[in-house]
Amino acid sequence: MSGKGFDVVYMWVDDLWPGYADAIGRYAQSAHDRNPNRTRDNLETLKFSLRSLELYAPWRRNVYIVTCRPQCPAWLDRSHPSLRIVHHDEIMPADILPTFNSFAIQSYLHEIPGLSRRFVAFDDDMLLTRPTSLDDFVERDGRIYYDFHGHLPRRALRRAASPWNAALANNVVLLDEVDPAKRHPGYLHAPKMLDVDDCAELLHRWPAVFERTRRSRFRAHDNVAFDALLPQYLVARGRAVAVARAASKRRVAYLGLENVELWNRFWLWRIGMSGIKFLTLNDNFGPNPNQLAVRNARRTLETLFPAPSAYEIRP
């Protein structure tokens, strides 16, 4: 697709790729580093996300899938004219690779050559469930919409906290410099429109913090969460719009898929009846997934998005 519209950028990885698990083992220093939930591709959610994009995102232009070399989904049609695989070494310095840190990778997405000035960042487990338009991302005055949930934590950091929660708390420290009088909105898993210039500005404002984050091979307690911080920063400065909390509940849903199959089935049914537009299905299966729960979650995706997209290799 060419002409007006916005590019879409995904981050994706598959820990079953030959050698990848060995690389994690060489560099990992904690149980968090070895957490398979962030690197497993047992549901192939990227495939279904691309199907949802084709169905419900007429505004899409080019699609970029960012991953480590030489990975590429086996089912992906790399000849598609609007699709490109971008390996980490094309946008990130060699001396910080390999990296397994999504915070670090997110901070480089805006450096993809040829990327539209504004683009929509998806995690590979994010799907569209209803038709979307540019009005779902941008206000009439040009400011970007962002969905939030609650407020960021202000509790003291503890070594027992996960690197993710620590990063959100670290965001608070930075945001207090921008707007110390406000409670900063909390992160919500959803596709986000980003602006290349805004990304560069954020990195320029806190260079030491981002240098430290970028050099962490895994998420670490002294990192910041880029995809949460940028929307929070722009809203604090009045340059982006926070969607009203009630409106966000009507359009965004997050579901952690657990090893309890009935739990997953109930919440997938309830979300399907809710009319939301943006759905994140997070892998919470842990180190020993219940295969029945996995199969039924996969079956739900196949029911929602049965037809292969043009991004897939045809038989």
Main features:
315 residues; alpha/beta; Spore Coat Polysaccharide Biosynthesis Protein SpsA, Chain A; 5-stranded mixed sheet; 3-stranded mixed sheet; 11 helices; 10 strands
What would you say this structure looks like, in words?
With 315 residues, the chain is of the alpha/beta class. 34% of the residues lie in helices and 16% in strands. The protein has a single domain, classed as Spore Coat Polysaccharide Biosynthesis Protein SpsA, Chain A (Alpha-Beta Complex), CATH 3.90.550. The protein is built from eleven helices and ten strands. Helix 5 (163-178) packs parallel to helix 8 (226-236) and helix 10 runs parallel beside helix 11 (291-304). It is globular and about 55 Å long.
Helix content: 25-40%
CATH-derived architecture: Alpha-Beta Complex
Strand element count: 10
The CATH superfamily is Spore Coat Polysaccharide Biosynthesis Protein SpsA, Chain A
Strand content: 15-25%
* Rg on CA atoms, Å: 19 Å
Task: Describe the SSE topology.
Layout: E1 6-11, H1 20-27, H2 45-56, E2 60-67, E3 83-87, H3 88-91, H4 102-106, E4 118-123, E5 126-128, E6 144-146, H5 163-178, E7 192-195, H6 196-205, H7 207-214, H8 226-236, E8 240-242, H9 245-251, E9 252-257, H10 261-272, E10 278-283, H11 291-304
Parallel strand pairs: 1-2, 1-4, 2-3, 6-8, 9-10
Antiparallel strand pairs: 4-7, 5-10
Helix pairs in contact: 5-8, 10-11
Brief digest:
This protein has 315 residues and is an alpha/beta fold. Helices cover 34% and strands 16% of the residues.
